Amino acid sequence: MENMDKPLTQNIQPDRVFATLADYEQTGGYQGLRKAIAELPPKEVQQWVKDAGLRGRGGSGFPAGVKWSLMPLDDAHQTRYLIVNGDEMEPGTFKDRFLLERDPHQLIEGTIIAAYAIQAQTAYIFLRGEYHLAARRIEQALQEARAKGYLGEHILDLDFSLDIHLHTSAGRYICGEETALINSLEGKRANPRAKPPFAVVSGLWGKPTVVNNVETLCNVPHIIRNGVNWYKGLGLGADQGTKLFGVSGRVRRPGLWELPMGTPIREIVEEHAGGMRDGFSLRAFLPGGASTDFLLPEHLDVRMDYDAVAKVGSRMGTGTMIILDDKTCPVKMVLNLEQFFSQESCGWCTPCRDGLPWTVTLLKDIIEGRGRLEDLDTLSRLTGMMALGNTFCALAPGAMEPLQSALKFFRRDFEHYIAGVAPPPSVKRLV
Amino acid sequence: MVTIEIDGVQYQAEAGESLLPVCLALGLDLTYFCWHPSLGSVGACRQCAVMQYQSPEDKKGRLAMACMTPVTDGMRISLQAEQARQFRSDNIELLMINHPHDCPVCEEGGECHLQDMTLMSGHTVRRYRGQKRTHKNQYLGPFINHEMNRCIACYRCVRFYDDYAGGRDLQVFGMHNNVYFGRFEDGTLENEFSGNLVEVCPTGVFTDRTFSARYTRKWDLQTAPSVCAHCGLGCNTAPGERYGELRRIINRYNGEINGYFLCDRGRFGYGFVNSPDRILKPRIHDRMDIPIEEAEQKLRDWLTDSTIGIGSPRASLEANFALRSRVGEENFYLGLDDNEQTMLEAIVDIMRNGGIRSPSLREVEQADAVLILGEDVTHSAPRLALSLRQSVRNAAFDQARNLNIAPWLDKPVREQQIDHRSPLFIASVCATRLDDAATATYRGSPEDIARLGFAIAHNLDSHAPEPAGLNDDARALAVTIADSLKQAKRPLVVSGTASASLAIIEAAYNVAKALPAQNRQLTFTVPESNSLGLAMMGGKRLRQAFERVHAAGRVIILENDLYRRAPLWDVDTFLQAAQQVAVIDCLNNRTAEKATLLLPAATFAESDGTLINNEGRAQRYFQVYPAPAPVRCSWQWLLADMKELSFDRLTAACAAAFPVLADIRQAAPGAGFRVDGMKIPRQPHRYSGRTAMQAHINVSEPRRPADPETPFTFSMEGATADVPAALEPVIWAPGWNSNQAVNKFQDGIGGHLRGGDYGVRLIEPSGERDWFRTIPEPFKPITGQWRIVLLQHIFGSEELSLRSPPVAERSPAACALLNPADARMLGVQAGDNVEIHCISGGPFIVLPAGIKPNLPAGLLGITAGLPGTERCCQTHHVILKKAIGEGPL
Fold first, then answer.
1. Does a structural domain hold residue B802?
2. DSSP collapsed to 3 states, B428-464
């Protein structure tokens, strides 16, 4: 039986290694596909998804149906591509992995429906290179789907053909950026591309291409099967559907839960993650992965939806929180993050390529007692240099988000290091 | 045109253009690195940030990268807004984090775009305290130095080398701030246009290795407008001299020909000017130096009514005309290979009377379908190959337009190239360096290439004669090619002399004539810098001189090594039969060795002259520095007796003598030309050491050499402003010390030079020729015999550049190239020695074998012009044997 509250994770059960084709079909799997191809014209599928209000789960929150509707369906464009972005590398984020490893058919069905909606004959699943287990299970699921006639020529004997290829990445964070992903898939350096032209105009091999996140596509079969109204009823706030929310850090039960969009942060942290571990208190958190601004305990009552989190100065991002506790140094945490981003810069544009390593150098100087007060101005200026629009893609602006908010919220910690007073006193804020 | 507002001032601009070049064209200074007029916009360096305001009320604005921003009507931007200035300054600070402070010892210093942009941005104080990252440098061959620590990662090198020039062995490795631009491993850069990295690199990562050994700052180099001496395209160059030595060649912008780029032969082939093999003194019988007066007297004494004068395709029109005047028209011989003369005469005839336009390289780049018949253009006319490579992109530009992608967005347009390439068909004897860009290739003997050409022409127009008995593959290909060319709006046929086949040239004309498009074009490569000019002048054949030598007795040879023109035996006989042989040349060679009177000629760098390139464009090269006495221009030797002789008069006389050359006087202004009453200085204002340069000889300041022949002066004083852009010896503008300053001299960025590009076209299409109807029989190998086909090589086949050590180092080893089946039959493998016996007798030579897939069976490929292959003459039949033991004694 279908679990109508937790559609995405209904087949993922503690006693089950992963959902097989039979498991998946038992809860209505591939019925959405049948319905879409047999009953709905592609434009109609697009409209359903648009009406359902499904927003991109990769972090940007761009409405998926709108993205699809930009795909040119006229005869002048014979070749179209769909790419599944499974290059999940955002620090602290592990939501797609869960879906990939435990219920691969859900993604495959979503991919086929999406490909039908945009009339793509070929789809690629671009998978993070380290996701070996997911790769094996997807490959196996693809074979099962082909054998069952869900994939290949004339799917379900209907007038739509598609094949899906699995591509495992060589492993760079920047490949999660959709145009860098396309370059990588073409065998080029994973540098992002200029936009415009957007991928729907000139994407993979110069052809119209749609790139969707794994979790986004996993929503699609359920929308088609159960309808727009049902889906819209799932959200608690402004956004629709459910979302995988995760918490990592010193909480009692770090993990991942499928919850309605708009679930308050406090509920996620305190109920689902069980609150802070004994002896630790919440000092701040990154709400949506490493490239989002810190929020403070006073923001705990904010709902996890795109606009609500943006309103208080951060981003919902991937919806997977990282908790900063009172025993962890925020400056060192930021250094850790900036080291990651600095290393993952593709090296294409100046502010990111040369600005991030300088950020790291400055943070190290500060932590190791060589810092100067004016370094904080330099850091602050660097966050401005790497603001959105000033760099070629969103990597560096994302990297600046935890830093700029740390400079705002934890300035005293920085100053203590510079003044040589260590360790900085912790700010106790109990949940 | 739309109106835009920049810093409160209204300007007119073309909508849709990239804002950066628009700003530059308006004369505004805006910093940039990754953008290049020929490479387009990629938005990598973020250096051209400006403020863009959304509306007249918008006070805040936002930063935008000018290179990535299209011009729109009413757009309001600011270059001077504090936020934009600050961003550009901060961005340079980031770029400079790892840049070494080695300007005083860096060869880019003084003409460094990074220096210019740093100064322009206002960045001065460095706040970064960390360590700089360092790199290991690579050995990149004899042309280019590599100093990776200086790299600011603008990506222009790989974008030029890989994307623009089709190279494969220069790549970017690594990521974040550890990106590395180099080869997979140390080794010579393979691409024939690698030298442009020196100018494309905005700083000192890639520098001219040949210059490095005898380095001089830009401001200490003396320069004059010049024209490349190493092929028939006539690319414009700026040679630089110091202490009587030619130190380097850099590109001199010509919007119609070379644009921003030269080939490596043109850039690095100059070393012959400084060669120890230079002839520096008049000499008799190859042993005794004599004074000038005596040399002049001897030449005078030898001149009779029947003295044979042999001209040269590598000497100027003036030098050839001086010889022709001196010996008389009836005694003037062109000094060309017999077959080459036939071909050149046919080319001149087609260009003048065929009614089809001969395009400039700029026009070649705009062709939307190209057929190459019988040429490996990269080797016979290298810079043309670079233009042809760009022509293939036109379909991608069209498709980009369909998709509303701006044509200057380099990467997206290149992405469309995957499926959209303008057709390029190459028919050649064996694989060419442009094959990777080709739609289809055809391999065959020169006869078969010509037959393919005739078949294409017939498919386009049934009036054109049809070759009989064409095989099915060739017939099908001819249909495909004809269909492609028929659909093109600007189709181009490329042919030339490299295959030594008149039939190919005639077939090329038939194809061009048969094309329906009004904008059809036909271009021929010619081997040397003045081949076309010499053929336009016209004269008798070398063979006729050989026949007449017994009667004439005396011979004057102008800048010509006859051993490169005719079989060794014939030249030997000729020179032995002559009683007196006067040779005027710059370098010792086999002909010069046999001279009874040897006169030292100035090279292109030390003389003035007019050359006519393959397009039919007359261009003047000017003396860069005075020839060291007693070295003189060839024409000065020849006309030493004439009173009141001047270069201008000689040019005028030449123009008067040949109606087709009438316009050569317009190629450049004469000696009387003044700007604001002053001559144009060859030395930059900052030229240093004038009073000290010769202090080891004489402590008094030397009198500056006079130059009565040109509007230039050997001085740093003279006209500074208002010099026509095409006559600027050095490209230099306030704040712009590198060659990028050329944007200040152009009529539109990447367009023509202000006041017109250099040179004057002499031939415009007129008339119409009849179809050529002589179609050769297919090539049939004779069992046990091979026919020699000479293959051109960019490094090695051209006489002068091969005398430059770095070019010689890059020349291939002489070898005998065979079809794999032929090699099997002979039992030889690559590297085995092969004996080559001429059917007509004479000693055999031994060369190592090379296997050349696709070379037609029955042909023996020999790289033209290499030492050790003099006996291998074009189209001679030979017998091959696997060599056993040692070579011939």
1. yes
2. ECCCCCCHHHCCEEEECCHHHHHHHHHHHHHHHCCCC
Choose among A189, A196, A347: nearest Cβ to B176.
A347
Taking the Cβ of residue B98 and every Cβ of chain A, the question of whether any pair is shorter than 8 Å is answered with yes
Flag if A347 and B68 touch (Cβ within 8 Å): no
Among the partner residues B172, B178, B412, nearest to A202 by beta-carbon distance: B412
Q: What is the pLDDT of residues B869-881, one digit of tens each?
A: 888 888 899 999 9
| Residue contacts between A and B (CB atoms, under 8 Å) | 116
Let me know: does B71 contact B14? Beta carbons within 8 Å. Answer: yes
Q: If contacts are CB pairs under 8 Å, which of residues 20-79 in chain B contact chain A?
A: 41-47, 49, 62-64, 68
Contacts of B152 in chain A (CB under 8 A): 350
Alpha carbon distance B885, B431 (integer Å): 32
User: For residue B873, what pLDDT is reported?
Assistant: 87
Q: Look at residue A226 and tell me whether its pLDDT is greater than 80.
A: yes
CATH number for region A21-232: 3.40.50.11540
Write down the pTM of the prediction. 0.96
Task: For residue A350, give the nearest of B68, B91, B129 by CB distance.
Answer: B91
Q: What percent of chain B lies above the pLDDT cut of 70?
A: 99
Total number of domains constituting chain B: 3
Q: Which of A182, A349, A374 is the best substitution to test chain B (most B C-beta atoms within 10 A)?
A: A349
Are residues A354 and B412, on separate chains, in Cβ contact within 8 Å? Answer: no
Q: Which of residues 121-160 of B touch A (CB under 8 A)?
A: 127-130, 152-153, 155
Closest to B81 in 3D by CA, of B3, B7, B170, B164: B7
> In chain A, which residues have their Cβ closer than 8 Å to the Cβ of B98?
354
| CB B582 within 8 Å of CB B570 | no
Separation of CA B193 from chain center: 10
Distance CA A394, CA A387 (A): 9
CB-CB contact of B629 with B291 (8 Å) = no
Out of 3.10.20.600, 3.30.43.10, 3.30.420.40, 3.50.50.60, which CATH number does the structure's domain A242-325 have? 3.10.20.600
CATH code at A330-419: 1.20.1440.230
Q: What's the rounded Cα separation, in Å, for the pair B45 and B34? A: 6
Q: How confident is the model at residue B889 (pLDDT cuts 50, 70, 90)?
A: very low
Q: Are B481 and B357 in contact (CB under 8 A)?
A: no
**B276 contacts B521 by C-beta, under 8 angstroms:** no
Could you tell me the residue range of the domain that residue B496 belongs to? 358-382+396-519
CB contact under 8 A, B175 and A347: yes
CATH number (domain holding residue B22): 3.10.20.740
By C-alpha distance, the chain A residue nearest B131 is A361
Give the C-alpha separation, A145 to A123, whole Å: 14
Q: What integer pLDDT is reported at residue B75 of this predicted model?
A: 96
Are the CB atoms for B364 and B391 separated by under 8 Å?
yes
- Residue B666 scores a pLDDT above 70: yes
- Is B94's CB within 8 Å of A355's CB? yes
Residues A30, A222: Cα–Cα separation, whole Å: 10
Of the candidates B270, B231, B234, the residue with the CA atom closest to the CA atom of residue B252 = B234
Domain end (from B519, B548, B571): B519
Domain edges within chain A: 21-232, 242-325, 330-419
Residue A159's beta-bridge partner residues? none
Nearest to A197 among B43, B172, B403 (CB): B403
Give B108→chain A minimum CA distance, Å.
21
Any chain A CB within 8 A of the CB of B172? yes
Task: Examine residue B433 and state whether it is found in any structural domain, yes or no.
Answer: yes
Q: Is the pLDDT of residue A422 over 70?
A: no
CB contact under 8 A, B87 and A385: yes
